[in-house]
Design a protein that fits this description.
single chain, 183 residues, 8 helices, mainly alpha
Length: 183
């Protein structure tokens, strides 16, 4: 049951922009906020200590959705992608200051014996990710404040994921070649 709840809540978090869009279109006012609040709370309970770094965005998401329901302010729902991007920016930036960099940590999961020469490269890639999170946070804020719900959904529910996927896959492929060259 716990695994099923984790899968469902993960899908809802990934599909958050689509859930907001369709919820605002087809559900009575406030229902989507309440539903998302319950799902985010469920996510926090079922994941417990597994991903401590994501507790703060979940708490802020619960506060945003709960406050949106209570205040009957659907526009507050639009700020969750901003919270996620700022949280990831903080996490990746912190790893640059304290080390090892976030991308080095993730790379070592697949390749525990990375050469020392890869450390600077992986720090640079972590900085690139920070740049993407800045862009995504700025666009999330802009689309929440100054555009239509359709544009907000398009950027936060598709374009941001495409950008993340492109950076993730492009860097992973490049790293494979880079490691062979520097091995």
């Amino acid at each position: 049951m716990r695994l099923l709840l984790q899968i469902i809540t993960t899908l809802v978090i990934v599909a958050y922009p689509l859930a907001v869009y369709f919820g605002l279109q087809y559900l009575p006012p406030g229902y989507i906020a309440l539903l998302l609040c319950v799902l985010l709370l469920t996510r926090m309970i079922v994941t417990k200590q597994q991903v401590r770094a994501m507790v703060l965005p979940l708490v802020v998401g619960i506060a945003l959705t709960g406050a949106s329901f209570i205040a009957k302010r659907n526009d507050w729902l639009l700020y969750y992608p901003l919270v996620i991007n700022l949280s990831l920016l903080s996490l990746f930036s912190y790893s640059l200051m304290r080390g090892p960099s976030m991308i080095e940590r993730l790379a070592r999961v697949q390749e525990p014996n990375l050469p020392d020469s890869a450390i600077d490269y992986l720090r640079t890639v972590t900085k690139l990710w920070c740049g993407l999170f800045v862009v995504n946070a700025a666009m999330a804020a802009y689309t929440a404040i100054a555009t239509t719900i359709e544009m907000w959904t398009l950027y936060n529910g598709l374009i941001a994921y495409v950008l993340i996927g492109m950076l993730l896959s492009g860097e992973w492929i490049y790293r494979k070649f880079w490691l062979k060259k520097h091995d």
